[in-house]
Specification:
globular, alpha/beta, Aspartate Aminotransferase, domain 1, 3-stranded antiparallel sheet, 372 residues, 12 helices, 7-stranded mixed sheet, 12 strands, 40% helix
């Protein structure tokens, strides 16, 4: 199989799996226990916390581990609105955000919060003038993704955070697709991240919180994480997150060079007939979201079962509905259904990527020939 679905999840790095192994087998103690074994596990988690924090690379905050980035996002949004001063009950977000943001906003909207969903242009980018026009003293939180999970465009998060702060609002950055891939700009008060998007394990995320911006608890119980997030932590998962974050920092230049080589090779092999969805200039180069007139993308996936690629978000691909991201950039349902997403990275070889692109292109041509 040729794996081209890096936005859905990444292969676990061998170094990460090796680091986790002792904590899966022999070192099984509860890290919140006062025993010597518990203290050893707690110390390993603190090392991992430092590694993950250093990868986020923002000053003046702390990091709490969560069960997923979805939990981190829910916590950030719901907890911020719960703590917001009286009169600040509005959230400003973007039509192309991940479902973790949009569905949480919808849930809060049904309970009396106001939500403003900003549009994007055909390139998938926000207009900063629209952001500033939406901001006033009623806004508690602005939630904007750094790298879009479907089309890979990079939003101006630093400028958006500055605009939010001018009206006294906080800013949440979903950096799930950006961590370890593009730098997180200064400015966000809350940053959500996930281990399995950076060659770490599934089942663990994190919320970085600027000092003073910590949200109210979402999960109640023992308060194991800094008194504001309850639940027994898994040393294996935390250590895996930390190891993946550290490895990503160490390999950043090497990974970037490899990615540029893959990006250039894939684009050269595609040739004419394919259209890029979203900005080419402001984009993460491990994401190719492309469409071709008259192609049924679901059939492409069925025809090429030994190549793993997708129609869009892994969270929504099974719904049968056209992507909300592609519709937000102005595509018709027909155009959206002709789009595919190719995601590649550290463990993708140029040879297998070029081979896959050739076969995808040939299958698309064959479809068009049958339709003619």
């Amino acid at each position: 199989m040729i794996y081209l679905d890096y936005q859905a999840t990444t292969p676990v790095a061998p170094e990460v799996a090796d680091t986790m192994q002792p904590w899966i087998s022999g070192k099984f103690a509860n890290p919140h226990s006062p025993s010597r074994w518990g203290r050893e596990a707690a110390a390993a988690i603190e090392v991992a916390r430092k590694q993950a924090s250093e990868a986020i690379d923002l000053e003046g905050g702390s990091l709490a581990f969560t069960g997923s980035a979805t939990e981190a996002i829910n916590w950030a949004i719901k907890g911020t609105l719960e703590k917001a001063p009286k009169g600040r009950n509005r959230i400003v977000t973007v039509a192309t955000e991940h479902a973790a943001v949009l569905d949480t906003c919808e849930w809060l909207e049904a309970r009396g919060c106001d939500v403003t969903r900003l549009p994007v242009g055909p390139d998938g980018l926000l207009d900063l003038a629209d952001v500033k026009a939406a901001l006033d003293e009623k806004v508690a939180l602005v939630a904007v993704m750094l790298v879009n999970n479907e089309i890979g465009v990079v939003q101006p998060v630093g400028e958006i955070a500055a605009a939010a702060h001018e009206v006294g609002a906080l800013m949440l950055c979903d950096a799930v697709q950006g961590l370890g891939r593009v730098g997180i700009p200064e400015g966000p008060d809350l940053v959500a991240a996930s281990a399995h998007k950076i060659h770490g394990p599934k089942g663990i995320g994190a919320l970085w919180m600027r000092q003073g911006a910590e949200p109210a608890p979402l999960i109640h119980g023992g308060g194991q994480e800094q008194g504001i997030r309850s639940g027994t932590l898994s040393p294996a998962l935390c250590v895996g997150f930390g190891a993946a974050a550290k490895l990503g920092q160490e390999r950043r230049e090497l990974d970037h060079a490899h990615l540029e080589q893959l990006w250039n090779a894939a684009r050269a092999e595609l040739g004419s007939g394919w259209t890029m969805n979203g900005s080419v200039e402001h984009r993460y180069h491990g994401n190719l979201n492309i469409r071709r007139e008259g192609v049924d993308s679901a059939r492409l996936i069925s025809d090429l079962r030994d190549i793993a690629f997708s129609l869009g978000s892994a969270c929504a691909s099974g719904s049968g509905r056209p992507s909300h991201v592609l519709r937000s950039i102005g595509l018709t349902d027909r155009e959206a259904r002709s789009a595919i997403r190719l995601g590649f990275g550290r463990y993708t070889s140029e040879e297998e990527l070029v081979s896959a692109v050739r076969r995808i292109d040939a299958a698309a041509h064959a479809q068009q020939g049958l339709a003619a």
